[in-house]
Amino acid sequence: MTETSPPPPILVAALYQFTTLDDVAAVKAALLPVCEAAEVRGSLLLAHEGVNGTIAGSDNGIAAVLAHLRTLPGCAALEVKYSRTDAMPFGRMKVRLKREIVTMGQPDLDPVEGVGAYVAPEDWNALVDDPDTILIDTRNDYEVALGTFAGAIDPGTRSFRDFPAWFRERRGALLGEGRRPKIAMFCTGGIRCEKATAFVRAEGIDEVFHLKGGILNYLEQVPEADTRWQGECFVFDERVSVTHDLTPTHRAMCKWCQRPVDDDRGCGCGVEA
């Protein structure tokens, strides 16, 4: 009988939910003590449009924080992506108040009502293999540099704020004269695509799709033999990036720009370590 190794002890939960939070200061005042009592570390962002962040800790600690978050208005179905790691990837717990939980700079956008159609990981390959589908990576340039889906367009943005201007400038070239293609977009865990698809739909395009649960969900659910993913997926903690089955790479990070260090290209910020 083959013995199996126990799973890594630290549970990591990447989460978000777009919902209306009227008094974010009161939400923070109640949330931070729950995180501290549960001995959970990480970062949670609160804004009037919802909650977003990544936390890590024991299974019971994570469960306690998620149970509290699910009591918030509109958060009963909180979107959570789990993974495990051997060592705590965060130094402390932070709860911050922000204007947006993911900054796009489009204050009139409604990511709840305007969001595009979700596509499950098991259906994603068929969508992106369709020649009528335009596949767009909504992440930033340093994330795309580590890995992306085969055939995806890289906007080359350094900030998510740059995405609306990029799309408006490239719209004609992307769509072509009289063409009505499907647009499929993806990001790390799904949150940026909630806004990106809502933005593109607000620009008058109807058939807009995004990968439910993001790249992380795809890498966990789709067998490596069937993957359309190429490379690694950048994550916003000390694991730096993950591969299929969410295996951490533990790449080096530049202490100045907080971007992954490539053995050949460095990080690109120009500051010597």
Proportion in helices: 25-40%
Let me know the average pLDDT: 88
What is the string of SSEs from the N terminus onward? Answer: EHEEHEEEHEHEHEHEHEEE
**Helix tally?**
7
**Major sheet: size, sense and barrel closure?**
5 strands, mixed
Structural class, judged by helices and strands?
Answer: alpha/beta
Shape: globular
**Low-confidence blocks of residues:** none
Gap between N and C termini: 49 Å
**Backbone CA Rg:** 19 Å
Approximate strand percentage: 15-25%
Domain Rhodanese: 129-227
Protein name: tRNA uridine(34) hydroxylase
Catalytic activity: uridine(34) in tRNA + AH2 + O2 = 5-hydroxyuridine(34) in tRNA + A + H2O
Function: Catalyzes oxygen-dependent 5-hydroxyuridine (ho5U) modification at position 34 in tRNAs.
Structure description:
This protein has 273 residues and is α/β, with parallel strands linked by helices. The protein is 26% helix and 23% strand. It has helices at residues 24-37, 59-69, 121-129, 141-144, 163-175, 191-202, 214-221; strands at residues 10-18, 41-47, 50-57, 79-85, 93-97, 117-119, 133-137, 147-149, 182-186, 208-211, 229-231, 233-234, 241-242. Strands 4-1-3-2-5 form a five-stranded mixed β-sheet, with helices on one face. It has a four-stranded parallel β-sheet with strand order 6-10-9-7. It has a two-stranded antiparallel sheet with strand order 8-11. Strand 12 (233-234) and strand 13 form a beta hairpin. Helix 1 packs antiparallel against helix 2 (59-69). The longest helix has 14 residues, at 24-37. The protein is globular. It starts with 9 loop residues before the first strand and ends in a 31-residue tail after the last strand. 40% of the residues are buried.
